[in-house]
Write a structure and sequence with these properties.
The strands form 5 sheets. The chain has an 11-stranded mixed β-sheet with strand order 11-10-9-12-8-13-14-15-16-17-18, sandwiched between helices. The chain has a 6-stranded mixed β-sheet with strand order 19-20-24-21-22-23, with helices on both faces. A 5-stranded mixed β-sheet has the order 2-7-6-5-4, with helices on both faces. Helix 5 packs across helix 11. The chain folds into 3 domains: 17-115, MurE/MurF, N-terminal domain (Udp-n-acetylmuramoylalanyl-d-glutamate--2,6- Diaminopimelate Ligase, Chain: A, domain 1), CATH 3.40.1390; 123-351, UDP-N-acetylmuramoyl-L-alanine:D-glutamate ligase, CATH 3.40.1190; 364-516, Protein-Tyrosine Phosphatase, Chain A. By secondary structure, it is α/β, with parallel strands linked by helices. It is 33% helix and 22% strand. The mean pLDDT is 95. The structure holds ligand UAG and adenosine-5'-triphosphate (ATP). Adenosine-5'-triphosphate binds next to helix 5, helix 11 and helix 13.
């Protein structure tokens, strides 16, 4: 990967802690001399090593982290934490070695100890599900800010510490980064944090050592079957967020049938929410909260949230689609579960004319007053395509044009459905490339085209590579009144081509294509 790897934020003024204290507190075995060893940080990667760090050697898919122990020592690491296999690999590093049975499983608690994130933690919100995690997290942050709090955010798109913003690498950072981020947030006076929690994060202990005040579940649909054997395994991977080790309370959206199953499996108190017209009639009837879309325009969606005891809130958000109303309502109910009064939330939102949120690359309109409407979106699953296409179509007087490609080296089993759903919902389809990674982009497009051919409705289909060209073809075909939905790249500022993060922004490309076509 190139140097465009985003920075990892750490506390600016870490307080050193004696390593002997860690060993004593957790009753850990060690080799070497711990006398005078002071720890100021923790990492599992030599690419993010600071002098004074504990280097945690985790067994990875390509290498055992402990095989980089000598490099870690040269970089200023003060000790190694690893397993028995890693201890052998790290023996020549000259550093003391602390032994744990599973370094990845230990990382969260160790990072919490190093950065003292257990001391006066902020209010913590965790959001999981297939689609809508980033959006719900941004919406939580927006409402918290409108309530006057200094906020933090951790999502696929960005990490925020108050007004400071950096782009993200992983959706949910490794536990060492997560706790460093929280420590930095504490320095900045952050009082509430919204964290997007991926299934991979739960499977890989990335949120260990954190207890969310409120966990939220958006929905579950086909994705990530490269990481999980089947939908059931993927579903099961989400459940630990609803255990007492990870959250105190939960809010579960019943819009997909998996929601009810989360409620049944949850080991914490949960409340439920369902979207009228989208969840099943039974789930709408049994949900404690319901959300109903009242008005939709190209500029905003207005909705009503109704809760127990006839409590109600009507507000709007500058986002399109019923699914965004579902995300916003989930965020608001999570705040209520955290102890905020619904009336206070309503008053704060009313004062501002609704929720003030900007979601980078989530059905983001990049076009101007004239010409076709162009939206850049991060959707990369059949369900996301269906919802965003429906939302865009609603405000399109002309034709709906969709541009998309699929991720290489990621769940290939969803590609047929992506092609089919995209074809069903569009009048013109431009199939192109996304992140090919190490796959052949021609063969990815071929699978998408096969999927598109399965659709009952057949749009006009074009195959265009690379995406810079594809968006220009789409803009060239578009007329006033048409809409273009470019799904996949969202906020991202690179394409991963054979492991190299090549600079590239779909939002910039789309704007350039519009300018070149004279629509600026
Ligand atoms: C499958 C997966 O999660 N892999 C993660 C894993 O990589 P790995 O096991 O291959 O690590 P490895 O390369 O064998 O290296 C082993 C260890 O040696 C260390 N190392 C390695 C090389 C070196 O020079 N120095 C060094 O210290 C590594 O940091 C690592 O700790 O540990 C790495 C270090 O933290 C992660 O960066 C990497 O995430 C990769 C980039 C990834 O793509 N993960 C995806 C699947 C992911 O987690 N996605 C989810 C969800 C996204 C969504 O919702 O769409 C996410 O939360 O982002
Ligand atoms: N509640 C929802 N239901 C269905 N689709 C949604 C929902 N919310 C958002 N989407 C669609 O999914 C796309 C991704 O949204 P978002 O980034 O919020 O999800 P995510 O869960 O964070 O995704 P990822 O796991 O890829 O980071 C959006 O651009 C939109 O197309």
């Amino acid at each position: 990967m190139s140097s465009r790897i985003p920075p990892i934020l750490r506390p600016e003024h870490p307080t050193p802690r004696p390593l002997a204290g860690l060993v004593q507190e957790f009753g850990l075995e060690y080799r070497g001399d711990l006398d005078g060893v002071e720890v100021t940080g923790v990492t599992l990667s030599t690419n993010d090593l600071h002098p004074g760090d504990l280097f945690v050697g985790v067994p990875g898919s390509k290498a055992h982290g402990a095989s980089f122990a000598t490099a870690a020592a040269e970089g200023g690491a003060v000790a190694i934490v690893t397993d028995e296999v890693g201890a052998e690999l790290a023996a020549d590093s000259g550093l003391p070695i602390v032994l744990v049975p599973s370094p990845r499983a230990a990382l969260g608690e160790i990072a919490a100890w190093v950065y003292r994130t257990d001391d006066t933690p902020p209010l913590l919100f965790g959001v999981t599900g297939t689609n809508g995690k980033t959006s719900t997290s941004y919406l939580l942050e927006a409402v918290l800010r409108q309530l006057g709090l200094v906020t933090g955010l951790s999502t696929t798109a960005e990490r925020h510490i108050g007004e400071l913003s950096v782009v993200s690498l992983l959706t949910t950072p490794e536990a060492s980064e997560m706790h460093a981020l929280l420590a930095r947030m504490r320095e900045a006076g952050v009082r509430a944090v919204a964290v997007e929690v991926s299934a991979q994060a739960l499977s890989r202990h990335r949120v260990d050592g954190l207890v969310f005040d409120v966990a939220g579940f958006t929905n579950l649909s086909h994705d990530h079957l490269d990481d999980y054997a089947d939908m059931e395994t993927y579903f099961q991977a989400k459940l630990p967020l609803f255990d007492p080790e990870h959250a105190r309370r939960g809010v579960v959206c019943l819009d997909t049938a998996y929601g009810r199953r989360v409620v049944d499996a949850s080991r914490i108190p949960v409340t439920t929410i369902a979207t009228i017209g989208h969840a099943s009639a039974d789930d709408v009837a049994s949900a404690e909260w319901t959300v109903e879309v009242l008005d939709e325009t190209a500029g905003y969606t207005e909705f009503k949230l109704t809760g127990p005891d006839g409590r109600e809130l009507v507000t709007r958000e500058p986002l399109i689609g019923w699914h965004m109303a579902a995300n916003a309502a989930l965020a608001i109910v999570m705040l209520v579960e955290a102890g905020f009064e619904l009336e206070a939330i309503g008053a704060a939102l009313d004062a501002d004319g609704g929720i003030r949120a900007y979601l980078p690359g989530r059905t983001e309109r990049v076009s101007g007053e004239r010409g076709p409407s162009v939206y850049v979106d991060f959707g990369h699953s059949p369900d996301a395509f269906e919802n965003t296409l429906a939302a865009v179509r609603k405000f399109t007087t002309g034709r709906t044009i969709m541009v998309f490609g699929a991720d290489g080296d990621r769940d290939a089993t969803k590609r047929h459905d992506m092609g089919r759903v995209a074809a069903e919902g569009s009048d013109i389809l431009v199939i192109t490339d996304h992140h090919p990674r190490f796959e052949d982009p021609v063969s990815i497009r071929k699978t998408l085209l096969e999927g598109a051919a399965l659709a009952e409705h057949q749009p006009e289909i074009h195959e265009v590579s690379p995406p810079e060209q594809a968006i220009r073809v789409a803009v060239g075909l578009a007329r006033e009144g048409d809409s273009i939905l470019w799904a996949g790249p969202g906020h991202q500022d690179y394409r991963d081509i054979r492991g190299v993060r090549t600079p590239y922004s779909a939002r910039e490309e789309a704007r350039a294509a519009l300018r070149e076509a004279g629509w600026a």
